[in-house]
């Protein structure tokens, strides 16, 4: 029998020992490519914001050519589209059990731990809605980028797209850089500049971009294809692809595997996360700017936390927090984190997407 030194068994020895608990919690839920911090922010004092959008018109009908003595006709053909964006509430509250609070080891502050974890979940949920939120599917949500795009423009199969298509059904095929280039042109990046434009992709498509430039190459026919439009910075040699056509490629964990043939246009249901069959993926071209400049903007309401006198000039408050010393019918207190939030899209051309992309090697 092996000696355990004084005790009759290892189990008896363990009774006289104590584990060491490290302070804090080791994070495993870590996302990158968050959309919300990239967007310009507006804070409202009301519940919604209204704005008018110019209706597109044919330049051939913009004015008239007349002879020197010909009478010029009066015109009245200007119209606008009225848009309204309403704030929605995102919130979570958790109890602080009085018994646990009284007996909890002081190595971790129980209240601080609960507040940080509640706040992280609220912000993560808001990021999820920024992609997959859909007022048509759930009136309590705000419209995310999938819904904003499909509600503005009809979907077009990739084989039929032209230089006006902003909502591209990739028909469950591989991504083509020719399709992406056409979408960038439709989003008018040459006119508005590349400085506020980004290409958003999930991890799967981001990996395909990297492989196309590095180990795998493009899917080829008998034609040699240049990779000059895909680029990496001088400090990232051997790393991931950072740009296409001078536009940054942002990999985001909030663009996830999706269900095929969902969320096509205004008449369709929301874009659904993957449940069965082949996993599909989406790519977005986003121009981040104020509503007045036609861009995509993040809009917050004043959370007006207790004790707050509202938002002072030059001050920004995105989320509010409320502490409850006592909860009725519980031997507990509580913590609540909340925000009033939505996205606003100034012009339709500031948001383009390619969806139902199969996870296959990229085509040129």
Helix content: 10-25%
Strand order of the largest sheet: 5-6-15-11-7-10-9-8
Distance between the termini: 70 Å
Shape by Cα distribution = globular
Helix/strand structural class: alpha/beta
Low-pLDDT parts are none
Major sheet characteristics? 8 strands, mixed
Write the element-wise H/E pattern from the N-terminal end onward: HEEEEHHHEEHHEHEEEEEEEE
Number of strands: 15
What's the alpha carbon Rg, rounded to whole Å?
A: 27 Å
Describe this structure in words.
- By secondary structure, this protein is of the alpha/beta class.
- The chain has a domain at about 155-290 and about 345-360.
- Helix content is about 20%, strand content about 25%.
- The chain has 7 helices and 15 strands.
- It has helices at about 10-15, 100-105, 110-130, 145-150, 175-185, 190, 205-215; strands at about 40-45, 50-55, 80-85, 90-95, 155, 165-175, 195-200, 230, 245, 245-250, 280-285, 295-300, 320-325, 330-345, 350-360.
- The protein has an 8-stranded mixed beta sheet with strand order 5-6-15-11-7-10-9-8, with helices on both faces.
- Strand 13 and strand 14 (about 330-345) form a beta hairpin.
- It is globular, with a radius of gyration of 27 Å.
- The protein starts with 9 loop residues before the first helix and ends in a 6-residue tail after the last strand.
């Amino acid at each position: 029998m092996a000696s355990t030194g004084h005790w009759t068994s290892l189990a008896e020895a363990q009774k006289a020992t104590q584990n060491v608990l490290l302070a804090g919690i080791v994070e495993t839920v870590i996302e990158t490519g968050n959309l919300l911090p990239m967007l310009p922010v507006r804070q409202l004092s009301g519940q919604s914001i209204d704005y008018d959008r110019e209706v597109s018109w044919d330049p051939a009908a913009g004015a008239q050519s007349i002879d020197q003595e010909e009478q010029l006709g009066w015109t009245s053909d200007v119209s606008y589209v009225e848009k309204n964006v309403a704030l929605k509430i995102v919130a979570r509250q958790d109890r602080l059990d009085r018994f646990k609070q009284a007996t909890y080891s002081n190595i971790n502050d129980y209240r601080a731990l609960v507040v940080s974890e509640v706040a992280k979940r609220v912000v993560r949920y808001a990021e999820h809605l920024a992609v997959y939120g859909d007022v048509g599917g759930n009136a309590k949500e705000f419209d995310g980028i999938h819904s904003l795009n499909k509600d503005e423009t009809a979907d077009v199969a990739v084989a039929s797209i032209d230089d006006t298509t902003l909502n591209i059904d990739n028909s469950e095929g591989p991504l083509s850089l020719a399709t992406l280039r056409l979408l960038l042109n439709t989003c008018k990046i040459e006119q508005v500049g590349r400085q506020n434009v980004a290409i958003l992709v999930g991890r799967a498509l981001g990996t395909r971009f990297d492989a196309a430039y590095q180990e795998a190459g493009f899917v080829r026919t008998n034609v040699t294809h240049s990779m000059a439009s895909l680029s990496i910075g001088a400090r990232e040699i051997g790393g991931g692809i950072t740009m296409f056509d001078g536009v940054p490629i942002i990999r985001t964990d909030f663009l996830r595997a999706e269900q095929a043939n969902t969320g096509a246009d205004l008449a369709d249901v929301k874009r659904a996360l993957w449940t069965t069959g082949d996993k599909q993926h989406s790519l977005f071209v986003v121009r981040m700017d104020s509503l007045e400049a036609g861009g995509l903007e993040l809009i917050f309401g004043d959370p007006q936390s207790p004790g707050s006198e509202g938002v002072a000039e030059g001050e920004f408050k995105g989320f509010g927090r409320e502490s409850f010393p006592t909860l009725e019918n519980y031997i507990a207190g509580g913590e609540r984190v909340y925000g009033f939030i939505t996205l606003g899209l100034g012009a339709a051309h500031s948001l383009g997407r390619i969806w139902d992309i199969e996870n296959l090697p990229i085509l040129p």
